[in-house]
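HUMAN: Quick job: go over this next protein and say how the chain folds.
***
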Amino acid sequence: MVIVFPAHICYNNIKNMTGGIRMNTSTFLEILKVAEKLKCNTRHSWTSSGRHESVAEHSWRVALMALLMRDEFPELDMDKVIRMCLIHDLGESFTGDIPSFEKKEEDTKKEDEAFFEWLDTFPSPYREEFTELLTEMNDLKTGEAKLYKALDNLEAVVQHNEADISTWIPLEYELQFTYGADKVQFSPYLKDLKKELDNRNKQKIAEANNA
């Protein structure tokens, strides 16, 4: 995959009064233009109002979940977790979203390649910061990366629970209980949250069966 970006994304960035880099306004807007695609690209999930959610909406609420959990994880750098949540699906600006139950290793590789290639066009220090974040997220070794990934999975479960059950496909009746279950095991709080979600999913299914 070859992705070409305007040359001025890489250049025309000047030092501000503190010695740091002030991003050129044209560069800033070009980055936002690419990111805007996440508002247009939809996910498999449906909203409670009966429409497909956008990738951007998912990313926003994953970040909100992290913000609301700061007191539960005082040992973690929650600012970093929030940044991970905000950028984690930016690669889908180029590839679109593929549901987890259809996504293959080559799809993930293509998404990461597009993301890293785009990041190479960012001015410093954003290029280095975003590249380091994405690498840490993919490695899933730090507490911050593990929390981001757990929240990413859990938000999808939350969203499916909020959607009308008529939007569920057959495999999701099981997936609602298994998706993300392995990602929460490092945290008692997240395990409790997953149990609460499981209870709500059971209730939703029971209500649908009794309707």
Remarks:
- Residues 4-14 have pLDDT under 50 and may be disordered.
